[in-house]
Amino acid sequence: MAWFAKISWVIKTQRESLSQSLDVTKLDTLAQELSAIQQTAPKRIAILGSRHVPLTHQQLIEMMSYALVLGGNRLMTSGAIGTNSAAIKGAMRADANLLTVILPQSLKRQPLESRKQLETVIHLVENPDNDNLSLAEASAVCNREIISRCQQLICFAFHDSHTLLQTCEEAEEQRKLVTLFYFD
């Protein structure tokens, strides 16, 4: 905690002199990110990611979501297989009441392998108005809704995961704390 206070003091007291060599908005962003990292109160954390995830990575994501929820954090994700399914599984084991799953479309539009798990989720938000959209379009809308509700985004993607990378950019523009893991 002492190091954080010291950095905050330096940023505040040296703002004018530092602004000549550094962009002030970067200092503000740095201060906000340091504050978010130091925050010990539970957060609203979104976990999003690719559907194409090796089993070992799914197990790590499950353990991470389990630990985050055990720590009192509220977890949000979507309903796809892979990353999101692993996040759901871990959160459900820890405390199902702290999990919210927001679907890009209605439950009936979800793949059969996901539906069984999703039917057990207490806080399930369906978006039947998006049933007429392609899955990619509906997913982009869904991801925007998820990041609007969270304080922090943890994303697992490949370098060509365009929808997920766009979601990360949008979250950063909204000044959310974003952690992006690449599978490749």
Compose a concise summary of this entry.
With about 180 residues, the protein is an alpha/beta fold. About 50% of the residues lie in helices and about 15% in strands. The protein has two domains: about 1-35, no CATH class; about 40-180, Rossmann fold (3-Layer(aba) Sandwich).
Output the helix-strand order: HHHEHEHEHEHEHE
**Would you tell me the structural class of the helices and strands?**
alpha/beta
CATH topology of the largest domain: Rossmann fold
Neighbour order of strands in the largest sheet: 4-3-2-1-5-6
Strand content: 15-25%
Bulk shape: globular
- Which percent range fits the helix content? 40-55%
Find the count of extended strands (DSSP E, 2+ residues): 6
* Spatial gap, N to C terminus: 35 Å
Structurally, the number of domains stands at: 2
For the record, what CATH class of the largest domain applies?
Alpha Beta
Q: Mean of residue pLDDT?
A: 86
- Outline the biggest β-sheet: 6 strands, parallel
CATH architecture of the largest domain: 3-Layer(aba) Sandwich
Figure out the total of helices: 8
Question: What are the low-pLDDT stretches, counting only 5+ consecutive residues below 50?
Answer: 14-21
Specify Rg, calculated over alpha carbons: 18 Å
Question: What this model shows, in words?
Answer:
It is a single chain. The protein has 2 domains: 2-36, no CATH class; 42-182, Rossmann fold. Helix content is 52%, strand content 16%. The protein has 8 helices and 6 strands, in the order αααβαβαβαβαβαβ. It has helices at residues 2-13, 15-19, 24-38, 55-70, 83-95, 112-118, 135-149, 162-173, and strands at residues 44-49, 74-77, 99-102, 123-125, 152-157, 177-182. A 6-stranded parallel sheet has the order 4-3-2-1-5-6, sandwiched between helices. Helix 4 (55-70) links the parallel strand 1 (44-49) and strand 2. The two termini are 35 Å apart. Mean pLDDT is 86; it is low at 14-21.
